């Protein structure tokens, strides 16, 4: 049976997280803060809307009318192992006659959590909602018996508390449309995209809301197979509460997969124009004179011969590239005369701008050249290293930096960007604590 099941669901056997994030209690407080005015706008639209046509003969002047809506309190708190609690207090100004205004308080207490729907998108759902409505104050002394009951009853009819509870998640600034944007594909290069797929519903701990993601890459619209992670990745939880709104974490495997995707897309293949020509090369290698009758520029065309590899150590990120360079002459009609293996070890610099990680080659730490064919002696090998090493040392990092200069989009939801970012490299993973910032509306 287990063999049969494994054949039926092969896709899920290789699914494992390679990055993720923790939305901290501080982040929840920020989301509540920026959602307050949004919630007031939604409630004002819902509660102050003209009532539907009423067949009763009651005159409009005697009907209760909500004339003001003000959200006094809006909070989101974490409930470990369960979800979030939303608490809202709304002051309502209600008039039933030109001279009578009452203030009522609508309180909403709702339990929310995020689950994964059948389409494998994250969805914010309400598990419990308790609205209450009570009188706060009056501008005119009234009979405390029947009129008060009548007012409360009429207001209850006008305020559809069931509808409010049904759509309470819309009072937040991250409704389900924005949660779905988390899994949207983002471009890296013109033909390469990255996508972060949630593997399960988030977990809730005292440290925050923990979500695990699996990265997939598409090249020319097709999802490419990537090296399997040798070690399962889990979100490293901070030992103590973090002041940052959000903590993102990326495994070593994430970065290796990124460079493998770039390799698959051909972005790491380089064509290097050296400062040499066939005439200057013939001065050092006499055979060149007989191969080329005219003076032509010498070009290196390098392609990857195996997948790149990224190694993360404390405060250090290294990428290892394995290239094969064809050395030849002529820019339009390329004539190769030598094949050289080039192994490059380069140090990476990581930073974050908005919602993108900028990855650049900070320095080349080591380059090894070896002849792909063994019919050339060690003297020529040493000469080739002397002639071409400066070009490779300069141009390979420049090519990678050109490819990655736009940055790699990090997982994020629409309308929010990252600020106060502190990128730290640890052994096997990179930690990115940051704050959330709601983007200013344009247009």
From TrEMBL:
| Start and end residues of each Lipid-binding serum glycoprotein C-terminal domain | 240-434
Q: Where is the segment annotated Disordered?
A: 44-64
Q: Which GO terms describe its molecular function?
A: lipid binding
* InterPro entries referenced in this protein's UniProt entry, alphabetically: Bactericidal_perm-incr_a/b_dom, BPI_fold-BPI/LBP, Lipid-bd_serum_glycop_C
The record's section on Gene3D superfamilies has:
Bactericidal permeability-increasing protein, domain 2
Q: Which PANTHER family match?
A: BPI FOLD-CONTAINING FAMILY B MEMBER 4, BPI FOLD-CONTAINING FAMILY B MEMBER 4-RELATED
State the name under which the record lists this protein: TENP protein
- List the source organism: Regulus satrapa
The organism that produces this protein has a lineage beginning with: Eukaryota, Metazoa, Chordata, Craniata, Vertebrata
